[in-house]
């Protein structure tokens, strides 16, 4: 909910650091992997009760998450970087409630399961929307600098880090905080499902959904005939365009 405002407020600072790192040869993927490794240190720290150090690991993970995107924007953005960023983010998010469950299964186990299940809902709805939005050529005006279509919601990265910090500050309240945040995640999932129903109710205009595309072997995005897309998407419609040209020549003959 507050990601857009937070990113706007910190962009000048992160961009300055990112340019300095890029000038020293630091790659965006290196920062992504480093941030993930540091963030995962929160798991043993939570299990052993070192909550202040766990907070530090969580916050450093978020700093790295902001820097890798800034480095990519200052050099070049890749599909691999976007893939790693979102995949490792979701793994890190689920690891924190898992750590609390391991630390005290009797008291925290159920709440951790419910929260991780809620994360599945927010994650799948987020990614499913992004995939279909990309197919239709939709552009996210709220988050134009992302490597893929980004749909916001009530619970985004900023809210997640705030709740993780609160859990570490008040570990005895983990269950209540987890159930509360799981409820908010449920609302986020519901709003994204509704947004997807509205956005995707009409037939897509992309040629990859057409009869011509399926003739190449593609079906619902899983066919072996799916052409590999060029990074800058200039070749996205070449296959269907060539087909239309060939058919036009046949009609002229």
Structure description:
The chain is mainly alpha-helical. It contains ten helices and no strands. Helix 2 runs parallel beside helix 5 and helix 6 runs parallel beside helix 8. The longest helix is centred in the middle third of the chain and has 31 residues, at 105-135. The model is unreliable at 210-240 (pLDDT under 50).
Query: Given the C-alpha coordinates, what overall shape results?
Result: flat
Helix/strand-derived class? mainly alpha
Order of helices and strands: HHHHHHHHHH
- Overall mean pLDDT stands at 78
Q: How much helix is in the residues? A: over 70%
Count of distinct strands: 0
The fraction of residues in strands falls at: under 5%
Name a few traits of the molecule.
mainly alpha
Nutshell version of this structure?
This protein is mainly alpha-helical and 253 residues long. Helix content is 71%, strand content 0%.
Topology:
Blueprint: H1 3-23, H2 28-40, H3 42-47, H4 51-74, H5 79-103, H6 105-135, H7 157-169, H8 174-199, H9 211-215, H10 238-252
């Amino acid at each position: 909910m507050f990601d857009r405002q937070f990113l706007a407020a910190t962009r000048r600072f992160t961009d300055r650091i990112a340019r300095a790192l890029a000038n020293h040869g630091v790659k965006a993927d290196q920062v992504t992997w480093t941030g993930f490794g540091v963030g995962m240190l929160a798991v043993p720290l939570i299990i052993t009760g070192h909550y202040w150090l766990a907070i530090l690991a969580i916050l450093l993970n978020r700093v790295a998450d902001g820097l890798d995107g800034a480095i990519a924007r200052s050099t070049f953005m890749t599909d691999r970087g976007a893939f790693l960023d979102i995949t490792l983010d979701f793994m890190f998010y689920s690891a924190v409630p898992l750590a609390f469950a391991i630390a005290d299964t009797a008291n925290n186990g159920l709440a951790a399961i419910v929260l991780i299940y809620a994360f599945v809902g927010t994650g799948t709805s987020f990614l499913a929307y992004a995939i279909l939005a990309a197919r239709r050529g939709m552009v996210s005006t709220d988050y134009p600098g992302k490597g893929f279509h980004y749909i916001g919601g009530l619970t985004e990265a900023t809210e997640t880090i705030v709740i993780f910090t609160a859990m570490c500050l008040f570990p005895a309240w983990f269950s209540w905080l987890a159930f509360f945040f799981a409820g908010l995640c449920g609302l986020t999932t519901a709003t994204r499902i509704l947004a997807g129903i509205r956005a995707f109710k009409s037939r897509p205009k992309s040629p990859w959904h057409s009869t011509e595309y399926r003739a190449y072997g593609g079906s619902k995005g899983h066919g072996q005939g799916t052409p590999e897309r060029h990074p800058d998407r200039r070749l996205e419609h070449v296959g269907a365009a060539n087909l239309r040209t060939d058919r036009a020549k046949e009609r002229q003959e």
